Amino acid sequence: MREDFNYIGKNIYVDTACQSLRPKTVIDALNEYYTKFNSCGERVKYPWGVKTEQKVDETRTKVLKYLKLSTKDYFVSFTLNTTYGINLLLNQIDASKFSRVITSDIEHNSPFLSTMTFAEKNDLPREVITRDDTGTFPLEIDFDRALVVVNCVSNIDGRKLSNLNDLVKRVHKEHGIIIVDAAQAMAHNVDVLRKVQADAICFSAHKMYAPSLGVMVVRKDLLSKINTTFIGGGMVDDVNKNDFTPSYDNPDKFYTKFESGLQAWGEIIALGRAIDWLEKVPKKAKTKFNSYCKQLFDFMKKQPKIHLINSTPSPVISFYVEGIDSHLFGAALADEGIMVRTGYFCVHYYLDHVKKYPPLIRISLGLHNNQADIDKIIKVLKKAL
């Protein structure tokens, strides 16, 4: 896949869990919008705007098709990022419908902090559930009228919520709802999400080879629990002095419920191109990608000075080196042209306060990486150790 990222030269970028690089076809799609039909969607009748509206609608359809979800049951809205999407839901959801809030210990700050503030604001009990190294979620707890917000793939070590489908069914059986943080799943682990009937799925396009953008996939029946307070242009059909006619009363425009103001039209269109690209990644390339993950995992596992957080190979590998500050180590890797992430990766509670790890180093691979990258990373790590 390297030819799709030929602009990176000899640099070794392994911070894909933060944001992925963009293949040339996605960059071209963004440039085409800005240079050939730069216009507003849903507001104009001239040809450029009609084309923008058409391509944005195509992206909405592609998102649902990629997740194998029905347009009869779901709609797609666009936001800034995963964090924004989760907060947009929790700040407008009717808290009276719930008896408790449930999240897990390995959550990114996006679900962790938003569930904390939601519970405090609405005087609801909040439970932080422990998930083991497999990433599964215990189903023996009380989900009665629970609001559950969890990730389906961890940004620490890629552990998957492999029983997500069972969790969703259990939560729904007990009259609760579940919002899924899918930020780390959409690029390399989308299978864990496909056909899963969650109430909402939030993710970031910029972690799946697309421009910076947030996406919300929402069940239509969740709207009955939303009290709209975040509102503006693009969400109404008519306005009088003291009232208005909302666009989102129209089933064909449910997505406007979460789309106030002008949208990032070019980025949305380029997301559609990124999904096309991901769907066409050859099986051989995926096999090689998985082999790169295993090579790094196997190497690190054998090094006595490397404390590996992962229990299995993954595109996301976190570790620390005994006796060496991770931030200094990350800077040293940067001097060798290897770009990694250091710190706690917005999972402060679990990594710092539960596990009491020192700051970590995270290597997160992308489809742009090749065997030469892996060989150099291993060579440099051997030299450092």
Task: Indicate the topology.
Layout: E1 12-13, H1 24-36, H2 47-67, E2 74-79, H3 82-90, E3 100-104, H4 109-121, E4 126-129, E5 146-151, H5 164-173, E6 177-181, E7 200-204, E8 214-219, E9 236-239, E10 244-246, H6 265-279, H7 283-301, E11 306-308, E12 316-321, H8 326-335, E13 338-339, E14 341-343, H9 348-354, E15 360-364, H10 371-384
Parallel strand pairs: 1-13, 3-4, 3-5, 5-6, 6-7
Antiparallel strand pairs: 2-8, 7-8, 9-10, 11-12, 12-15, 14-15
Helix pairs in contact: 1-6, 2-6, 3-4, 7-10
Describe the structure.
By secondary structure, the protein is an alpha/beta fold. It folds into 2 domains: 2-22 and 282-384, Aspartate Aminotransferase, domain 1; 37-278, Type I PLP-dependent aspartate aminotransferase-like (Major domain) (Aspartate Aminotransferase, domain 2), CATH 3.40.640.10. 34% of the residues lie in helices and 17% in strands. It is built from 10 helices and 15 strands. The strands form 4 sheets. The protein has a 7-stranded mixed beta sheet with strand order 2-8-7-6-5-3-4, sandwiched between helices. It has a 4-stranded antiparallel beta sheet with strand order 11-12-15-14, covered by helices on one side. It has a two-stranded parallel ribbon with strand order 1-13. Helix 2 packs across helix 6. The longest helix has 21 residues, at 47-67. The chain is globular. The model has no long low-confidence stretch (mean pLDDT 97).
